[in-house]
Amino acid sequence: MSTLAAVLFDMDGTLVDTEVLWWRTTEEIAGGLGHRLTGADAPEVVGRAVEDTAAHLVRVSGGGDPAEVAAALTEHFFRAVEAGAPMRPGAQRLLTALEAEGVPFALVSASPRVVVDSVVGGSLAHVPFAFTLSADDTARTKPHPDPYRAAAGRLGIAPGACVAVEDSPDGAASAEAAGCAVLVVPSLLAVPASPPRTFAESLEDVTVARLRRCLTAAG
């Protein structure tokens, strides 16, 4: 059986149900710019860094300053998260099982540090993460491999000994590019299949043994 050295969890849409909050936030800011958000915008919104979403909104609306739009997105999303971000079904059970088996786990998010700290200080306050990484902690965030490479480096292990748990195309691409095995539990967007990726409908279907099998499947 493959040795599972660590599990690296995405946050939004994976451990906590915040993707809907992010969509509503983006919808509100887009409306202020004169753009009605639709499903066609989803690939540029879901799982993307704040700066990427801001650049997209400025591009499609034809107005606004990217830095100001990014700041507005962050502020509005932070307020929404502060009001409450419930855990996804099965998340608590899986985290408890990993802790019981002594498998370390960390949080690797494309959200700004202020949002990560809000969630980790709220609905995830009881979770013993080894550490948390935000979009502010690496030169590039998802879909680039930097966050997952940095997380594996902080743990002192090879990315190939880690399983990343993700819900979005950009997050899965980031983990795969870093060399991690990837378990995809989709939320708002479909995620393409590839050899290093295995899929589950819900975290309720995921066990520690299944995470170990992800390493074997990734080869």
TrEMBL record:
GO MF annotations, alphabetized: hydrolase activity
Organism: Streptomyces nojiriensis
Name under which the protein is recorded: Hydrolase
Annotated transmembrane regions: none
Alphabetical keyword list: Hydrolase
